[in-house]
Design brief:
Oligomer: single chain
Largest sheet: 9 strands, antiparallel
Protein name: Protein SSUH2 homolog
Order of helices and strands: EEHHEEEEEEEEEEHEHEEE
InterPro entries: SSUH2_homolog (IPR052789)
Strand content: 25-35%
Mean pLDDT: 85
Structural class: mainly beta
Distance between the termini: 73 Å
Helix content: under 10%
Radius of gyration: 35 Å
Low-confidence stretches: 1-18
Length: 413
């Protein structure tokens, strides 16, 4: 296929006053025989000001009634409409498990607590390490934080009319058979619990129609000059003269951008007032079809149980022991975990997810409990009695009261 040229027009009458000269002579590239040389429709009475930042307007939708109704899709338009999924048969859900096994996590020693603090100090250039080396530990209190997460992987479907330039592609018309229902079309996600999206042409819904934007001419009015083919010169603001400074004086001369005319040829349409139709790409015809959009979304919520002064959000960023994990089409709430707050959080989130996504088909659910070790280390150094936290398998440290901080010299050793 040869490279498509912009559809412009022939030289406008007069051919003067365009600054850089009139538009190119000769027929418009790609214009049908007998087409007018320049834009002949409505336009402003005077040249418009140039706006270099102006963008082409977006495409418009065809007028109502232009497209034939398709069985099963009578009420759709050009805006996507959500489609409720087939109902879920609760009898397909397995029975709740009677009991579950949960694993424990190890604790840390005084030596490990000190090594973790020294590593933490080394990451802060202004912290001194002497306190970490010399402090005497008075107590180590090991606890566990619990991180419950529930993921619901859902599939939503929407349909809408869509169109694209007709360039001779195969058209699957309604006469080829009845269109399948939106939930009867096969679509598989790339991976479970990962967001994704695909767009599918619904079989037997396509057709070809004249372009509504250009009325099947392949050309539309230029959005920049509004059909006039020329613009106010923005360099001289339409005066035809520009000022400059020379030998200590302000002087004026003919504007070199418009040759003194105060107006310039429109650089978008090259002076013809018309451009290639942005909807049909100059093809004059459009392929219409019903587009099915399948959207996979992973809905994730969590709950943290942590009963020390350690900020809860720090628990999310570290690893721990996966005490329990289950992946099934529909999970049952956890009821046998030793900490009742985890059981209650599981019940609340499972119940919430069961009713929150009415327009999605739930494909799979996954929930798990992570146990994150947390040690609160109490120590004494000089006259300071304080504590810090070591948490996660990475042995991260949270020590807001560390006694050897320096913000103005970095001389502490």
């Amino acid at each position: 296929m040869s490279e498509k040229q912009p559809i412009l027009g022939g030289a406008p009458a007069g051919g003067t006053g365009y600054g850089g000269g009139g538009p190119p002579a000769g027929a418009v590239p790609g214009a049908p025989p007998g087409a007018p040389a320049t834009y002949q429709g409505q336009m402003p009475a005077a040249d418009v000001k140039d706006d270099p930042n102006m963008k082409a307007p977006g495409p418009s939708a065809p007028p109502p009634g232009q497209l034939e109704s398709v069985g099963g899709y009578e009420n759709i338009g050009f805006n996507a409409s959500a489609l409720p999924p087939p109902s879920y048969d609760e009898s397909e859900r397995g029975a709740p498990p009677e009991n579950r096994e949960f694993k424990a996590v190890p604790t840390i020693t005084e030596e490990e607590a000190r090594e973790a603090l020294l590593s933490f100090v080394a990451e802060h250039c202004c912290y001194g390490k002497k306190a970490a080396q010399e402090m005497n530990y008075t107590d180590l209190k090991s606890t566990s934080a619990f991180h419950y997460t529930l993921e619901t992987f859902g599939e939503g479907r929407t349909t809408a009319w869509a169109y694209e330039p007709f360039i001779g592609q195969t058209i699957d018309v309604p006469q080829n058979g009845p269109a399948p229902g939106p939930w009867d079309i096969q679509a598989q996600p790339g991976a479970l619990f990962q967001n994704g999206k695909i767009e599918i042409e619904v079989p037997h819904t396509a057709g070809v129609k004249p372009c509504h934007e250009c009325l099947a001419t392949g050309r539309i009015r230029c959005f920049r000059c509004q059909g006039r083919g020329r613009l106010h010169c923005h360099s001289c603001n339409g005066s035809g003269r520009e000022s400059y400074y020379e030998d200590g004086e302000h002087r004026h001369r003919t504007c070199c951008h418009c040759d003194g005319s105060g107006r310039r040829r429109c650089y978008t349409c090259d002076g013809y007032g018309m451009i290639t139709c942005t909807v049909c790409d100059g093809r004059a015809s459009l392929k219409f079809y019903i587009k099915l959009t399948v959207l996979w979304t992973n809905h994730l919520e969590d709950h943290i149980v942590e009963r020390t002064a350690l900020p809860d959000e720090l628990i999310r960023g570290v690893s721990g022991q996966i005490s329990f994990e289950e992946t099934v089409p529909r999970v049952w709430p956890i009821v046998h975990f030793p900490d009742q707050e985890v059981n209650m959080a599981s019940k609340n989130l499972v119940t919430k997810h069961a009713s929150s996504y009415a327009n999605e088909r739930i494909l799979m659910q996954r929930h798990k409990v992570r146990i994150i070790p947390v040690t609160q280390a109490y120590y004494k150094w000089k006259d300071n009695d304080a504590n810090y936290f070591v948490y996660g398998f990475e042995k991260k440290v949270f020590a807001p009261d560390y006694p050897q901080k320096c913000c103005w010299g970095c001389s502490i050793q």
